[in-house]
Amino acid sequence: MSFAQDALFDIIIVGSCAGGVLAARLSDNPNLRILLLEAGPDHRTATMSPEMMAVNPMSLWADPTWTWPDCKVRRTMLQAPRHYPIGRGAGGGSAINGMGAIRPSPQDFAEWEDMYGCEGWGWNTMLPCLRRLESDPTGAAWEPEAHGVEGPIPIFRQPLESWGPVARAMRLSALEKGYGESPDINSPTASGCVSFAYNVDPISLRRVSVNDGYIEKTRGRQNLMVRCKAVVDRVLFNEKKEATGVLLVSGEQILCRCEVIICAGALQSPAILQRSGVGPTDLLQSLGIPIVADVPGVGIPLAHPASADAQTHDCLGALFLPILLLLQ
């Protein structure tokens, strides 16, 4: 569907991985008009390429159609920057990632809540969200209180008899050294050698991304617009420092009534925020960006996330930055 050119949306969501989940959930409310913006191209589940269906994502990582080709990262100052395949396109990173459907442990959730002040992110609070997003009948048969069976993302585990020789040898070596074995890596008590879990359809063995599980099922809704190839430069603010919309790299402004939600990933989200004037004051002043809010943690430890072309970043230690957006 399409709204009028000058339409005022209620909520603008930037990024279609975690943002795709949010768009699907928020558009359940027919009174909200939602705009989901994605920087990369659109694609549909019914016409997925063999490369995008495949369990092995390596060919997608080298394809500039679905990644930011100029994005380079490094984990330490001693390393040369290397290409980092951040997904762009409907479904975001979930459309090109390795499909590892692995939860943080209860201890991780407790650490975020107790040590870092992330109130509401404890295990008991987040477990219903984890269960709601997944369809994992195998896991539910082992531990029903820990797994869901009606969610949009299927969970698949490779049977032991179909493991390759390297995986079999590693498992045997671990067991010989006295490590335990668990059938479910996502069990709250999992320890030792476990089978990997994937967001793969167990029948067709094809990828199920956020686009497949969430966005495709909501595209017909009259209150949701999915717009791809829309690269966001920055968030727009009024004199009260309230977000009023976004400015695209093309120069187009899109306004909203309620809020702007940035779900553009570990590198692009802080870049957008910093270009918007939200971040460490010293850095923003050095770049000539007017200050909207002094938030020192934005972009740390990213060295240059406020790149003007919204693509090139130099990352110091954020290669595996744990970003979890389970807003179910």
Explain this structure.
The chain is an alpha/beta fold. The protein has 2 domains: 9-97 and 212-294, FAD/NAD(P)-binding domain; 106-206, Arc Repressor Mutant, CATH 1.10.1220.110. It is built from 10 helices and 16 strands. The protein has helices at residues 18-26, 50-53, 58-61, 106-116, 123-133, 137-142, 165-176, 210-215, 265-275, 281-286; strands at 9-14, 34-37, 72-73, 82-83, 134-135, 153-154, 156-157, 181-182, 193-194, 197-198, 224-227, 232-237, 243-248, 253-262, 278-279, 293-294. A 6-stranded mixed β-sheet has the order 11-2-1-14-13-12, with helices on both faces. Strands 3-4 form a two-stranded antiparallel ribbon. The radius of gyration is 21 Å and the shape is globular. The model is unreliable at 304-328 (pLDDT under 50).
- Which residue ranges are poorly predicted, with pLDDT under 50 across at least 5 consecutive positions? 304-328
Corresponding CATH architecture of the largest domain: 3-Layer(bba) Sandwich
Question: C-alpha Rg, in Å?
Answer: 21 Å
Strand content: 15-25%
Number of strands: 16
Globally, the shape reads globular
Instruction: Please provide the ordered H/E string of secondary-structure elements.
Output: EHEHHEEHHEHEEHEEEHEEEEHEHE
Strand order of the largest sheet: 11-2-1-14-13-12
Structural class: alpha/beta
Q: What integer is the average pLDDT?
A: 87
Tally of domains: 2
CATH superfamily of the largest domain: FAD/NAD(P)-binding domain
* Number of H/I helices: 10
- What is the helical fraction, as a range of percent? 10-25%
Main sheet overview = 6 strands, mixed
Which CATH top level class of the largest domain fits?
Answer: Alpha Beta
Cα end-to-end separation: 24 Å
CATH topology (level 3) name of the largest domain: FAD/NAD(P)-binding domain
